[in-house]
Amino acid sequence: MKKVAYFPGCTLKTKAKELDRYARKSAEALGFYLDEIENWQCCGGVFTTSRNEIATKLSSVRALADAQKKNQTLITVCSACHNVIKQTNHAMQTDEEFALKVNNYLGAGNEYDGKTKVLHYLEYLRDEVGFEEVAKKVVKPLTGKKIAAYYGCLLLRPNSVMAMDDPENPTIIENLIKALGGEAVVYPYRNECCGGYIALEDADSAKKKSTSVVASARSHGAEIIVTACPLCKYNLEKNNPEAKVVYFTDLLAEALGVKEDGNE
Amino acid sequence: MQRIGVFVCWCGSNIAGTVDVEKVSEALKNEPGVVFSTNYQYMCSQAGQDIIKDAIAEHKLTGIVVCSCSPRMHEATFRKTAAAAGLNSYMVEIANIREQCSWVHKDMQSGTEKAIILGKAAVAKVNLNAPLTPGESPVTKRALVIGGGIAGIQTALDIAEAGFPVDIVEKKPTIGGKMAQLDKTFPTLDCAACILTPKMVDVAQNDKIRIFSYSEVEEIGGFVGNFTVKIKKKARYVKEDVCTGCGICTEKCPQKKVPNEFNMGMDNRRAVYIPFAQAVPKVATIDPNYCTMLKTGKCGVCAKVCTAGAIDYTQKDEIIEEKYGAIVAATGFNPISMDKFDEFAYNQSKDVITSLEFERLTNAAGPTAGKLLRPSDGKHPHTIVFVQCVGSRCDACAEKGKEYCSKICCMYTAKHAMLTRDKYPDTDVYVFYIDVRTPGKAFDEFYRRAVEEYGVHYIKGMVGKVSPEGDKLMVRASDLLANKQLNIAADLVVLAAAIEPDKSARPLATMLTASMDTNDFFTEAHPKLRPVESPTAGVFLSGTCQGPKDIPETVSQASAAAAKVIGLLAKDKLMGNPCVAQSNELMCNGCSSCERVCPYGAITYADKEFRMPDRTVAIRRVAMVNEAVCQGCGACTVACPSGAMDLKGFATSQIIAEVDAICK
Question: Chain A residue closest to B397 (CA)?
Answer without folding.
Answer: A160
